[in-house]
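Co-fold these.
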Amino acid sequence: MNPIVPMISSTVVAATPLIYAALGETIVEKAGVLNLGIEGMMLIGAVAGFAATLVTGSDTLGFLAAAAAGIALSLAFGFLTLNLQTNQVATGLALTLFGIGLSAFVGHNLAGTPLPPLPSITIPGLTSIPIIGDLLFHYDIMVYLSLVLFAAVQWFLTRSHAGLTLRAIGESPGVAHAIGKPVLTTRYLAVMFGGACAGVAGAYLSLVQTPMWVEGMSAGKGWIALALVVFGTWKPMRVVLGAYLFGGVTQFQLFAQGFGLPIPTEFLSMLPYAATVIVLVIICRDPKTILLNQPASLGISFHAAA
Amino acid sequence: MKLSENWKSLRLFFAAGLIAASSAAASAEPLKVAFVYLGPVKDGGWTQMHDVARQKLEAAMGDKIKTTYVENVPETADSERVFRQLAADGNKLIFATSFGYMEPLQKVAKVFPGVKFEHVNGFKTAPNIVVYEPRFEEGFYLIGTIAGLMTKSNTLGFIGSFPIPSVMRNIDSMTLGALAVNPKIQMKPIWVNTWYDPGKERQAAETLIAQGADNVAQNTDSPASIQAAQEKGTYAFSIDADMSSFGPKAQLTGTTEDWSGYYIAETKKVLDGTWTGNRHTRWGLKEGMVVMAPLNPVIPPDVVKVFDDTKAKLISGELKPFVGPISDSTGAVKVAAGSTMTDKDPAFNSVNWFVKGIDGTVPQ
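Predicted complex below.
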């Protein structure tokens, strides 16, 4: 068996939850809201998706339940930060801690129950092509949907009127408010979108990557998604590339060990983080790119002057 | 004068009464036994096995004891607080079920000399601390027996958490067990540098399978590698608990723990006053602390026979996992011909080498 093909397909599977979570957060941050609660929303999504699929037997319902659970949690965040204008950093951290605890509590009796994995899609004619079929046409549907989501987010932010409004609100909510743009509503929708994406990302872990529920199974992926958004300078294309890069280097370091390369494993474990940061920093080494892309009002509460 | 004399006798009377009352209470009140867990009780592995044993202990001892547990206790200063609290609450026997509680336990034990502490897998004892540990290497030797006979590619894999002696011994003894039945095998270890990350464990399993390893064992905690093997049609081995529900075709067997025998024995010692400190207990297959998960029906009868024979020899003591000559992957002799490394040897607790047959260098 050609070892390169499984390496690449593992990379894609590892990167997919990061893509969902990071694209969601990109929209949230572009609207000027910093939600550090991705990890918590992912875990809630993971447990909700797992429970729904276990009960109904339907993966689709599982992902929908995960999105709904993510939205529910993000609404709590929205109410606190947008209506009550609490500090976004502190609220986001609290959301993560809350999500970790709540998911563990809710999922207490689900641990140790297995689920059958999501079948991969077979496209007649294409999947059977040697190597290329294995590389491109044998994933589960959520992998393809993550790319659809990427295209949609890209189009929304750069080509749609609503996207322009969202970005304007992220840059200067005061001005947007003055010309009659619905700041609060837009930010709410963005936060909910982020919640839904994080929920789906979590469900990808508990339904596809490792079909089971265990406490804390996101193992820090929410934080990596958050970092990808920043290092990808809020550009969907770079965020997605960063996710694949991270997944790829994670996979490579395991692979290198299997071949017995004499590199310290601690160094290899560090590699995915270091490589992703270095590459993304090089891509956007021009400080102007960061300044131009970072939403000017990120993390600042908006209080509409009467 | 008279008054003060009366007062004195009154006080004496009360004091005597109090002592009598407290000793009567001591004999009537059950012994309080506490358990401190690293993970949640439903983790499907390590912690769950301890909690199952706690329930068995309670069932066996009835109203003579009363047990409590605290779950999700991190191996940090937090654990010290938990131990203090439990000791202050009147627990007289406390089981600390993770290696990382070692230092906090040392501190707390000095403050509560009347409380008896039991620490798993550690190496620091005290007048009121004893250490207990399963002979994991026996379980992994048997996993090696099965893997060595079931492999078609002659390549075995191991997902390692951290290159510490207790994990190194497991990889080594699995390899020795496999080499004893199939000299052609080669072992590929992969370190994930975590005890628990289902996604990463899964990736490691897929990598090993892609590199030809058709029998993969693990020292990490989640059933992710069993699921991976189930999907790829290869074999895997569980750890701590039976994980066959995650891969009924993939899991050939596994090494699990039954702590109840030890917990009951130690509690009885405390009850009848024969408990002593400064002990180090290692129990294995013979004492029932190491228990093999049920064998998968795909294993052919001749392999089952070799497994049963090997197991019987390990139980009788006729066979030990580390019998010389053993040389490491660089060729240096680690256990001389004619000698056996047992858990009494100091070298046993500092194994930092791979036996010959393991493909890879030890991270230093």
